[in-house]
Write a structure and sequence with these properties.
By secondary structure, the protein is of the alpha+beta class. Helices cover 57% and strands 9% of the residues. A hairpin with a 4-residue loop joins strand 4 and strand 5 (131-137).
């Protein structure tokens, strides 16, 4: 099995809008397509991670509306599951109005199913004479069940639910980081072109984001007024923050994701790209470093989970970016790569994920800053070691320890954050 190709196929893909609401839209579209009559009733059940991530984020092409519910209803009305994670790119005004009317009439509802530990989306749609149910599990487009009028159309066996998606993850989880470097160094022309496409896609949305008066805009303003230096730190933070600003504002442009997350894709791709460009690194080396960044991001998430209580932009994509920067200048130097990983995780290991929203751009900035700083220190043989805190004797052990903290030590963090978020009822 080619692990790099599996990561690129399953976790590095164009996504229009926050991946969790779009996954809800995809599931609803699968169910909606098998029905002919108008929707009378619609119920969506999601795990706590999907619920949290989609609660406050603006959905693209939804008239400024936010959340999983509007995305799901639109997906059911669009009925084009073949578009997958770009399903909302051609939403029409009449469909937006129709979706709002269904929600206002309380004919469409969503609830959090806390019994589901992994990514889970279930959509049940009823018309006057028909019904359909679609279920997605474990990854954003992994359809495991589809039925119409209580008759099963598609059903994956329990052993198939995780499919190749989880098979490659099981292999990836057992690999050494040095092996991931080897994979990145041997990319073929197809992967090279695909990685280039990701750079172009994320730069395009970043350019749009600079015009929005949000985080990237104000970083640029601070730089122009002399409060920030015009250097690799500032330019990288502005590029990454602007892309996140545009994405979280629901702009109608896709982002190339990483680890199934658009914001993680922004960090994993744009940070090493801009740093490599500033240091005049060869283009081929930059592309390879981005392949490595994706691999590291996916590797970390094998331990922390896809929708963790800690911020993936920081402790997964940030790690990937830091490793990529070290690789650009020193290649497969495992001592320096280890120092960079340890320093970033020590710095940002406790950053909470309280769902996708405009404020994610701030975390993208922190991740960018720490990735460059951790890499630079590592290049000069300085970094955090096993003598400090939860840092391990190897980079792999540090990541394992982080996963243990995320899974066991912060087991109640998601529930607590969700309770606070839901009580606000904004």
């Amino acid at each position: 099995m080619d692990i790099l190709k599996e990561v690129l196929k399953n976790e590095v893909f164009p996504a229009l809008g926050c991946t969790e609401p779009i996954a809800v839209a995809y599931a609803a579209s699968v169910a909606g397509k098998v029905l002919e009559n108008e929707i009378e009733e619609m119920t969506i059940a999601v795990d706590s991670g999907v619920y949290k991530n989609g609660l406050a984020v603006t959905v693209p092409n939804a008239g400024g509306e936010k959340g999983n519910l509007i995305a799901g209803v639109l997906g059911a009305l669009i009925k084009k599951p073949e578009l997958k994670m770009e399903i909302l790119k051609n939403t029409k005004v009449e469909l937006i109005n129709q979706a709002k009317a269904l929600i206002k009439a309380k004919k469409a509802k969503i609830f959090c199913d806390k019994s589901q530990a992994d990514l889970y989306i279930e959509v049940l749609i009823k018309t006057e004479k028909e019904s359909a149910r679609a279920i997605i599990k474990n990854s954003h487009t992994n359809l495991v069940h589809l039925e119409k009028n209580n008759k099963v159309i598609l059903k994956k066996k329990s052993g198939e639910n995780k499919s190749a998606n989880q098979e490659y993850k099981a292999i990836l989880k057992k690999m050494k980081i040095s092996e991931l470097v080897d994979l990145a160094e041997n990319i073929d022309d197809e992967d090279y072109s695909y990685l280039k496409r990701g750079i172009e896609m994320n730069l395009k949305i970043s350019k749009v984001g600079r015009k929005i008066e949000k985080v990237g805009y104000y970083l640029s303003d601070l730089m122009q007024k002399g409060y920030l230096l015009d250097d690799v730190f500032s330019s990288s933070k502005i590029i990454a923050a602007s892309a996140a600003d545009a994405r979280m504002a629901g702009k109608n442009l896709p982002v190339m994701s990483s680890g199934g997350s658009g914001n993680q894709g922004i960090v994993a791709i744009l940070v090493p790209y801009n740093v490599g460009k500033c240091f005049k690194i060869k283009k081929k080396t930059i592309i390879r470093s981005i392949a490595l960044s994706h691999l590291i991001n996916s590797y970390v998430k094998c331990f922390t989970g896809d929708l963790s209580s800690i911020c993936g932009c920081a402790i997964a994509a940030g790690v990937g970016a830091a490793v990529a920067i070290v690789y650009q200048q020193k290649g497969k130097n495992m001592k320096k790569i280890t120092l960079a990983i340890n320093s970033l995780i020590s710095d940002l290991g406790g950053m909470l994920c309280d769902g996708a929203k405009g404020g994610c751009a701030l975390k993208v900035v922190s991740s960018t800053d720490s990735a460059i700083r951790s890499a630079y220190m590592a290049l000069n043989n300085h970094g955090i070691t096993a003598l400090e805190g939860f840092i391990g004797r190897t980079a792999e052990e540090t990541i394992y320890n982080l996963g243990k903290i995320s899974e066991i030590g912060m087991a109640n963090a998601d529930d607590t954050m969700l309770e606070i978020m839901m009580e606000k009822n904004l």
